[in-house]
Amino acid sequence: MTTLSTIYWNANAAATVAPSVVTRPRHTPGVKLTHEERMVKSDQHKFGLCSDCDAGLDDRADFVVGKHATYTRLLCNDCSAYYAQACTALRVQRFLKSIDGVDVCDM
Ligand SMILES: [Zn+2]
């Protein structure tokens, strides 16, 4: 099923990841349910839902905990892997730009 949010995520992910460097993972973060649907589904899972997609979290091994200054969020393993790979791609892209003598501040 393709939704607007999926299209949004794919478009933005493609814009920041160099396709020649990284093979995009099969899982792409994106919330497809409405707020109410997420609230209902969240009650059906022990740890609630992934903060970046609608995956239900029933096992502690299913997710990682992201701690930020003002909030804590639960990220499923697939989303976590996605961001780790996207970050690596961005670093590679910046490195390639830097050795090319191009200003990296415009990213
Ligand atoms: Zn997720």
In words, what does this structure look like?
This protein is mostly helical. It has a domain of 71 residues. 42% of the residues lie in helices and 9% in strands. It contains 3 helices and 2 strands. Strands 1-2 form a two-stranded antiparallel ribbon. A hairpin with a 4-residue loop joins strand 1 and strand 2. The longest helix has 23 residues. The protein starts with a helix and ends in an 8-residue tail after the last helix. The model has no long low-confidence stretch (mean pLDDT 80). The protein binds zinc ion. The site of zinc ion (ZN) has 9 residues, from strand 2 and helix 3.
Short account of what is shown:
The chain is mainly α and about 110 residues long. It has helices spanning about 5-15, 35-45, 75-100, and strands at about 65, 70-75.
Structural shape: elongated
Number of H/I helices: 3
| β-sheet strand percentage | 5-15%
Provide mean pLDDT, rounded.
80
Order of helix and strand elements from N to C terminus: HHEEH
List the topology elements.
Blueprint: H1 4-16, H2 35-43, E1 63-67, E2 72-76, H3 77-99
Antiparallel strand pairs: 1-2
The site of zinc ion has 9 residues, from strand 2 and helix 3.
Could you name the key traits of this structure?
107 residues, mainly alpha, two-stranded antiparallel ribbon, 9% strand, binds zinc ion
